[in-house]
């Protein structure tokens, strides 16, 4: 027995990340039990987010106004740019509330296996901004995995040729982390990045 | 920094069962990365399911035609009714493919703490169907928890007064289950329901 509208909804939900067939069906049943208004609000929120949110033309972050609130905020420092791989990384950084410079979203990381080379990333735009904005420091905040590190090294080399200071965010034991359960790579980074106290 | 359409979508998604704030945000980002068509299909599926799926007027199961496919299937036995608590339980039973009788959805279980008494459940409709359809057996398939058992006993007592056979689905060790890890209540049910081999 297949009730078509339920099956269709469940199969669409099952395409979302982290939602298997069983959870998709459970969510579909929940939606059936929602008020008609509640279901409409959820559907509208999906359409709205998809249609109104775009990439900022300057930094590439998610925004519903262009340029984004960060790029057009005159109180933020223009001489420092934090380079991240994905648009969502900007929101993660902003949650910290301690960084008051600009951002630049690469739109991915170098990945020769997947055919992503330097020209697929927003590297030229970054170099252009560095020159035009009079940037004095670029903080590279790609993830500490193989591709993130390779992307970081590649970009750092190019930028340093322009005489601009390049830094990398620190990697080490997370706050609340326990030495016993930390992987060797993180421990290595923690020792390597040790600082005088 | 709050990008309103993303925040709204994430907060709507976080109202779904089993989806916390972090997963909701992750799903929202995924939806931003979907094609415009993909996002529209998901939104439409939600609206469609909510508006087209209703409760069958006879049995109370989810359906997009009324009466539902099961109630109007002439090849199914009319003299046997399986009583379940929720509409979704019908779909779970049907997956088994071995039951060819009718269903009756109660719309919940007796729960005095939550103000759900016999009149809040579709018990009168069940008694009416039993009389009008010439039912000879009622299988009670509410869940084996306190409320499900109480509901089962209550309904069984009423139906037996009408001279109709009432049965309860078996409870015991699930297939693939391991004695070592089974809770005492299930073990007790398994012993209590033991059969000659």
Radius of gyration of chain A: 21 Å
Give the SSE order of chain A as H and E letters. Answer: HHHEEEHEHEHEH
Shape of chain A: globular
Distance between the termini of chain A: 68 Å
Count of runs of 4 or more consecutive helical residues of chain A: 7
Counted beta strands of chain A? 6
Strand ordering within the main sheet of chain A:
4-3-5-6
Sheet bearing the most strands of chain A, described?
4 strands, parallel
Secondary structure class of chain A reads alpha/beta
What portion of residues of chain A is helical? 40-55%
- Give the oligomer, counting copies of the same chain as homo and different chains as hetero: homodimer
For the residues shown, what is the average pLDDT of chain A?
91
| Largest interface: chains, residues each | A-B, 49 and 49 residues
């Amino acid at each position: 027995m297949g009730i078509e509208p339920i099956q269709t909804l469940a199969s669409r939900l099952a395409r979302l990340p982290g939602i298997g067939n069983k959870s998709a069906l459970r969510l579909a049943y929940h939606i059936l039990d929602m008020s008609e208004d509640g279901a409409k609000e959820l559907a509208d929120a999906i359409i709205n987010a998809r249609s109104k949110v775009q990439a900022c033309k300057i930094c590439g972050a998610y925004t519903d106004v262009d340029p984004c609130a960060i790029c057009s905020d005159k109180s933020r420092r223009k001489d420092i740019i934090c380079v991240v791989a994905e648009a969502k990384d900007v929101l993660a950084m902003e949650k910290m509330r301690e960084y008051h410079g600009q951002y630049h979203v690469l739109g991915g990381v170098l990945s020769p296996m997947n055919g992503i080379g330097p020209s697929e990333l927003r590297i030229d735009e970054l170099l252009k901004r560095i020159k035009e904005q009079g940037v004095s420091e670029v903080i590279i905040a790609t993830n500490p995995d193989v591709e993130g590190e390779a992307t970081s090294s590649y970009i750092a080399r190019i930028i340093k040729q322009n005489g601009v200071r390049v830094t990398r965010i620190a990697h080490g034991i997370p706050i609340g982390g326990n030495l016993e359960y930390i992987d060797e790579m993180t421990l290595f980074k923690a020792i390597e990045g040790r600082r005088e106290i």
